[in-house]
Amino acid sequence: MTRSRGLTRRRVTLLVAGLAWAVALVVGGSYGLTALRIYQQTTRVAARFDPPVVAGQVIAGGCSGGFYARKDSTIVLLSSAHCLAPGDRIRDGQGRVVGVLGPRAQLPDCPATRFCAPSDFMPLALVPDRIPWGHLNMVDMGAGGYRTFADGTKALGCVDLTRGEKVEVDGRERFRTGPLVEVGPYDYDTIFPCMAIADMEVGVGDSGGAVLVDGQPAGVISRDINGKLAFTPLEEGLANLGLTLCTTPDCGLTPDTAVQPTE
């Protein structure tokens, strides 16, 4: 596997659902290509919108975008909590502000000196002119095409994840599929009550990317466990931050009613 500068890995032993796994943290920052066993090089099957749908695609800061959601009158894009910090301003390649990050999903009942979270994500509050109006219920899976969620689609939680289900991701614009192989608690750098492992490769830059399970919105890419992609569930993280998954084209808002995010 080719590692780019900035890739940091620490090996430990983790007990997930009764099995020992070696854990390598996927750290945000600069990213490089990985020699993947199960993947397809992205050949886009549909044009990008303007502004583009970034859910499922690369965002600034070395991570990938998750799903669109709503907090009151603010539209947010989910991404990883370990790439950047709450309050950071994200800009696109032309230097335009896309949004402001934070806060992280977090559980209050946590051992001293530890950090506990239901899912490894935080929202990027988008400025109104960078919101892809008419497409907020979509995820761009590159070679896998756009996926559109029907009104009322449920975000999957830990109890909805079952071994053998089909997992799909497009982090780093590398479309991959593989079966879900394990679900269980994670206790290392952060305590997550639930972590799911899929039989597919993972690399730096995947973190925060949208995860579909049997075509449904399921979570965000969170860790590298024994060379396999691991993700944390969507439903619990949304509930923790008081967010609602966007399942309609405009998520119940308009450009005139969307609120400008503040730092």
Characterise this structure.
- It is a single chain.
- The chain is mainly beta.
- It has one domain (12-197, 205-245): Thrombin, subunit H (Beta Barrel).
- It contains 1 helix and 19 strands.
- A 6-stranded antiparallel β-barrel has the order 13-14-15-18-17-16. Strands 8-9-10-7-6-19 form a 6-stranded antiparallel sheet, covered by helices on one side. It has a two-stranded antiparallel ribbon with strand order 4-5.
- Strand 6 and strand 7 (74-80) form a beta hairpin.
Entry summary:
The chain is mainly beta. 3% of the residues lie in helices and 37% in strands.
Give the strand tally. 19
Physical arrangement of strands within the biggest beta sheet: 13-14-15-18-17-16
Oligomerization state of this entry?
single chain
How many structural domains can be distinguished in the coordinates? 1
**What name is given to the CATH topology?**
Thrombin, subunit H
- Total helices: the number is 1
CATH architectural designation: Beta Barrel
In whole angstroms, how far apart are the ends?
A: 38 Å
Shape: globular
